[in-house]
Amino acid sequence: MANILPQMLQILRDYPSLLTAYQEDFLVHDVHKILNAKIGDMFIWIVREHGTDLYPVEYATDTVEYRTKGDQNNILYRLVVITSVQDHLIGGTVTRLGKDDAIDLAKRKLQKVEG
Fold it and tell me: pLDDT for 26-55, tens place per residue?
């Protein structure tokens, strides 16, 4: 089981030009959401210079579309999937997404929820 939080932290280290402000988005809000996640939860994680967003896939459509407007090329999109939960050790995967893939995935999951 690969602990999800160190994976996410390594991504932030790999891209030092991102998250240069509002680190509390990750350190407080994203970590809280991950620690309260359940097996099978899926999130779209958006990392940009001024903060992060971590939303359940089915509720991420508006956020993903908003973040892709304008000239915002310096943004990472990742799919975060929770595969195990044991105390505060949260296992899962973090997979690279393109912005179009992130929008499409969010729209498909939203249609399932609403349908």
Answer: 999 999 999 999 999 999 999 988 889 898
Strand 42-48 to 89-97 pairing = unpaired
Question: Considering only 64-68, 88-92, 105-109, which range has the smallest mean pLDDT?
Answer: 64-68
pLDDT at 115: 47
Q: Dihedral through CA 77, CA 23, CA 43, CA 9, nearest 10? A: 80
The model carries a pTM of 0.86
Number of compact structural domains in the chain: 1
Residue tagged 């729209």 (tokens):
107
Domain of residue 66, residue span: 4-114
